[in-house]
Amino acid sequence: MCDYITFTLAAANFNSYKLMPYGPLESFLPYLARRAQDNRAIFKKAEKDRLLMYKALRDRLFKTQQWC
């Protein structure tokens, strides 16, 4: 969870927790691998959303409107 989300939740009196793995690398490497896969999926979706928003903005700025 990003810090700005954590700070916003805390300001609204919600509890939030962050996990910090510790110990031998072998014990938490599977966790880190899962997190990397999750983040990759999130970034792919964010990239698609960004492209769709850019396309919508471009269409609104550069397409002429047909007036009846």
TrEMBL record:
One of its GO terms (cellular component) is mitochondrion. Pfam families: Pro_dh. Converts proline to delta-1-pyrroline-5-carboxylate. Belongs to the proline oxidase family. Its cofactor is FAD. The lineage of its organism: Eukaryota, Metazoa, Spiralia, Gnathifera, Rotifera. Its EC number is 1.5.5.2. It catalyses: L-proline + a quinone = (S)-1-pyrroline-5-carboxylate + a quinol + H(+). GO terms for biological process: L-proline catabolic process to L-glutamate. Keywords: FAD, Flavoprotein, Oxidoreductase, Proline metabolism. GO terms for molecular function: FAD binding; proline dehydrogenase activity. Residues 1-43 form the Proline dehydrogenase domain. It comes from Adineta ricciae. SUPFAM superfamilies: FAD-linked oxidoreductase. This is Proline dehydrogenase. Pathway: Amino-acid degradation; L-proline degradation into L-glutamate; L-glutamate from L-proline: step 1/2.
